[in-house]
Known about the structure:
The chain has helices at residues 16-60, 63-97, 103-116, 123-144, 148-182, 189-205, 207-212, 223-230, 239-256, 263-283, 287-308, 318-333, 337-351, 360-372, and strands at residues 383-385, 391-393. The protein is mainly α.
Amino acid sequence: MAEERSLKVLANNTTFFNKVSNTLTKLLIPTKIGINGMMINIKRSATVKAYEQLKTAENSNDVDKKEQYQNRYEESYSLYLEAIDKHIMDSIYKKVKNNTASNYEKDALSKYYTIVHLKDTEYLEYKYRKQKFLLDLDYESLSTNNKDKILNKYKPIYVEKIDNIYKGILKNYSVKLADGIRAKIVNQADLYRKIFDTLEEYIKDILPIKIENDEEGKYEKIVHEYEEYEKFSVGKLDEKDFLEKNMILLGLSRVLFTHSLPLVAAEQCYKKLLKDTRNLITSTKSEEKKENVYRMLLELIEAYNVKLLSTKVYWDKPAEREAYKKFWDAYSKSGSSEKKEILSLQRELHDTADEYEKYAEVRQFYKDKLVELGVMKKIKKSTYKTMKGHFIKK
C-alpha cells in the first residue's frame, strides 16, 4: 500500500503566480484522471488474471504452481490497491482543492481522511477499512458506468476480499470486547454500536451480492431472515424497531460470522440486547407499545437460546449449565406457545435474580404476566398493627 502523503487542503493564494499555477492544475486534472483510470484498469486486469490462474492451480492440486500463483496474485492485488490510492491522491484531492469536485468526490475524500486518521490509534481497523474503501470505490465505479463484462470477472475477487476484511474487522472488535470485559470497563456502548453497524454494512451491501450469485444454495436458510431485516432498513425506526433490527442482525451473524464474531462476543451482544429490552419495557408508558416490546422480548429470548446457548459447550459455572439444560429440555419439548412463554418468563426471573434491585420493576412485570397465565397467585396486601400502634401493609 502506498504511504499516505499530506492531504491538507490549503486556502487559495491570490498572487499572480499561484493563480497561474492553479489554472494549469485545473487543465491538467482531466489528463491525470485519464492516466490514473487507465492504470487502475491495467492493475485490475492483472489481478483478475492472477486470481483465475490461482483458482486453476488450486483445482489441479499442483502445490508449486499454487504457491507461485498465490504470490503473484497477492502482489498484483497490492499494486491494484496502490493504483486506486494514487487516483485519490492525484485526482480527487486536486479536484477538491481546486473546487471542481462533485459532491460524491468530496464525500469520498472526507471518508478517506476519516480512515487515514485511524492509522496512529487503531492500526488494524485502519488497515481493513482502507482496503474496503478502495475496493468499494472501484466496484461502485464499475457498477455506475455499466461495465458489466469487467464487473462479472472482478466480482469474485471483490466478494472474497471484502468477506475477509469484514471478518478481520469483527474479530478485532471481538478481541477488544473480551479484553474490555476482563478489565471491567463499564462503558462498552461504542464497541457494541460498531459491531452492529459493521454487521449491518455487510448484510446491506455484501449479502445481497452473495445471495444473487448463490448457485449452491448456501444462503437459502437465511433468506427469510434477510427479508425480515429489509423491513427495518428503510424509514425512521423507534427504539423497539432498532432493537428488533439488531436482534435479526445478530441472528444472521451466527451463520455468516461464526468464527469472526465468536460465541463469547455474540453472547455479550445478546445480553446487551436483553438488557436494553428490559429497560424499554419499564420505560414504555403505553400499554399497547409495552405489550409489543414484551412480545419482541419473547422472540429475543428464543433467538438467544436457540441460536447461541444451545450450541454453547463451555460454561464458567456448572450450576449455570445445569439450570440452562433443565430449561432447554423443557422448552424444546414444549408443545404450545403459552408453555414457552411461561418458561421464558421463569428463565428471565432466574437470570435477573442476582440484580434484584436493578430489575425490580421488570421482574414485577414478569410476575404479573405469570399471574395472568395462571402460574402464580397474587397475594393481597394485608394491614398489620405494630407493637407501637403503627399500621403497616405487607
